[in-house]
């Protein structure tokens, strides 16, 4: 699972001077800010059945009496705890936690952990990437405030289009596309890499399959070899 924060570059339409965002974190100053880290509703996870639930890893939002929450539901839970703009989601902690990155309404960059089983918000902490600042916060708001397809929408669309377990969703291509990576796709080997891109404006989803791309590359290589023989 990827631990590095993917840098999402956003060009906010209407932002003066064509300002761009490099996905970043916010300086923590001022005495009235929220604590850097706090625990919310801890201990809600039912340890007795975690292993059984983890084996059903591809069943986002299905089964287990409704306790196995989807990526879309995790975003909703995180935004209840930290209202604002959710701009990234990642599956963490041995697939037990949805990690949601949010720019809050009061301008803080927060990282909220939501238990995958039960949907409890277990912690919220400051996302302290040194690159984040006031300017990038304004640019995130400008992009996501006008986005017709939110992070939660992208998660829902992805689950409808591809049966499997979402690993990560992030903004790419200057804030015009939600890129969805899957940890596992039902009926495929674990090492098969499938990526879905959801257009922020239209909600249209396009599947990018490494297997198909590799096959296309192989065909191109064979064509090149044939051309070389013809030249000889």
Quick take:
With 232 residues, the chain is an alpha+beta fold. It is built from five helices and eleven strands; from the N terminus they run E-E-E-H-H-E-E-E-E-H-H-E-E-E-E-H.
Plain-language structure description:
The protein has 232 residues and is α+β, with helices and mostly antiparallel strands. It contains 5 helices and 11 strands, in the order E-E-E-H-H-E-E-E-E-H-H-E-E-E-E-H. It has one domain (12-231). The chain is 27% helix and 29% strand. Keywords: Signal. Residues 25-76, 188-232 are annotated as: Disordered. Residues 211-232 have a biased composition (Acidic residues). This is PepSY domain-containing protein.
Summary tags:
alpha+beta; nine-stranded antiparallel β-sheet; 27% helix; two-stranded antiparallel sheet
- Gyration radius, rounded: 20 Å
Q: SSE string, helix = H, strand = E?
A: EEEHHEEEEHHEEEEH
Range of strand content: 25-35%
**Average of pLDDT:** 72
Question: Helix content range of the residues, please?
Answer: 25-40%
Low-confidence stretches: 1-32, 42-66, 212-221
Shape: globular
Give the N-terminus to C-terminus distance in angstroms: 47 Å
Number of DSSP E strands = 11
Q: In total, how many domains does the architecture comprise? A: 1
Number of helices: 5
Largest sheet: 9 strands, antiparallel
The strands making up the biggest β-sheet line up spatially as 3-7-6-5-4-8-9-10-11
Structural class: alpha+beta
């Amino acid at each position: 699972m990827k631990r590095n924060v993917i840098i999402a570059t956003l060009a906010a339409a209407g932002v003066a001077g064509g300002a761009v965002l490099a996905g970043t974190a916010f300086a923590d100053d001022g005495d009235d800010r929220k604590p850097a880290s706090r625990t919310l509703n801890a201990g809600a996870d039912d340890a007795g059945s975690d292993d059984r639930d983890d084996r059903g890893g591809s069943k986002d939002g299905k089964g287990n009496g409704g306790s196995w929450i989807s990526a879309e539901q995790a975003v909703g839970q995180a935004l209840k705890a930290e209202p604002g703009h959710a701009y990234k989601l990642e599956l963490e902690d041995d697939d037990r936690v949805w990690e949601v990155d949010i720019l809050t309404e009061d301008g803080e960059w927060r990282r909220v952990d939501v238990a995958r089983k039960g949907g409890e918000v277990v912690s919220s902490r400051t996302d302290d990437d040194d690159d984040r600042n006031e300017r990038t916060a304004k640019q995130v708001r400008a992009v996501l405030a006008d986005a017709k397809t939110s992070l939660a929408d992208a998660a829902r669309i992805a689950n409808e289009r591809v049966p499997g377990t979402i690993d990560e969703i992030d903004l790419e291509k200057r804030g015009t596309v939600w890129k969805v990576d899957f940890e596992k796709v039902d009926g495929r080997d674990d090492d098969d890499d499938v990526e879905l891109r959801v257009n922020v404006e239209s909600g249209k989803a396009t599947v990018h399959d490494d297997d198909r791309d590799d096959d296309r590359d192989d065909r191109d290589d064979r064509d090149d070899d044939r051309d070389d023989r013809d030249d000889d």
